[in-house]
Amino acid sequence: MPYINVKITDEAVTNEQKKAIIQGCTQLMVDVLNKDPATTFVLIDEVSTDNWGIGFEQVRQLRLLASHSQ
Amino acid sequence: MPYINVKITDEAVTNEQKKAIIQGCTQLMVDVLNKDPATTFVLIDEVSTDNWGIGFEQVRQLRLLASHSQ
Amino acid sequence: MPYINVKITDEAVTNEQKKAIIQGCTQLMVDVLNKDPATTFVLIDEVSTDNWGIGFEQVRQLRLLASHSQ
Amino acid sequence: MPYINVKITDEAVTNEQKKAIIQGCTQLMVDVLNKDPATTFVLIDEVSTDNWGIGFEQVRQLRLLASHSQ
Amino acid sequence: MPYINVKITDEAVTNEQKKAIIQGCTQLMVDVLNKDPATTFVLIDEVSTDNWGIGFEQVRQLRLLASHSQ
Amino acid sequence: MPYINVKITDEAVTNEQKKAIIQGCTQLMVDVLNKDPATTFVLIDEVSTDNWGIGFEQVRQLRLLASHSQ
Q: CA-CA distance, B5 to C7, in Å (whole number)?
């Protein structure tokens, strides 16, 4: 009965990608721990790039810097 | 000083239902553990049915399958 | 398919109290939202009073102050 | 490699305030634990005042009561 | 820069299984979302079977019932 | 009424460091958002280096590699 919470930045994640994350995490629980998929939850949180910081900076700012340096 | 996080699918939860969840969880902490309501937090997360998986499937898909099979 | 995470301080919580929390939270989901108990998860985290702060203070310290002031 | 999750009510938090939270939490990890900012994550969740309860009440209701009593 | 939190019951999970969970979740983020592994965190919480409830029951109790019915 | 959850690796964190984290996070909420410390919670989770992965590796393994390369 695993519970998996995947937090990613909210950057145009497609429904196909969401399905792939749910299926991949669930399969991993089956393969590694022999868990029952029927009681395996996968929850995806899409977090605004304004609300996610790394290395003192908002991810939104890091994305801007990366696009300018190209 | 309990902290309770209730994650449910985002399916037309009413304000009355939210109040009932907050009151019920808080009362449970008072009744079972003699906690002070003034420092009991209840946070409700409403999660898109696209972003919640169970048994390899998005809940949105499970809802569709259930409605079709009726 | 709710997921409920209850965080409480690690202060001699009994097994009967844990059962009461699990049953009370699950019943609340049934009563308020008509959820299926078979896919309702309740997870209890017992947090050391050294690791929980409120009002600038560790709960351990608050407990000491409260016991001295009695 | 700390991970810090800051949950606050969704009440007109400005971008400058978000930056200050990210910078302050990251600096704290550097100062207190000598952590590397490059692998320090800060995630801010803005929670609706309908979905946050304290003392049996929604924060939205508490805000209304406070404004009326002024 | 994903953050993945895997909550499983504390039932003799081996170090090889933990490695497989970390590697599988990280690879999934690379494959599906093209994320950088260097800023992909995977955190595993092992939760006591006394502290995890499903269907009104502690998992410990469910395990006992399952073993008796065999 | 903020709630702050700080997850760090379980590597001999001292009680003084825990106090500094609690005080620093709480002060940040006061300074940046004018929050009331009396309803500001800070929870510290110390996570085993076996259970925290980054870049496909357990932190325990990364610590070993770092100590060998010195």
A: 8
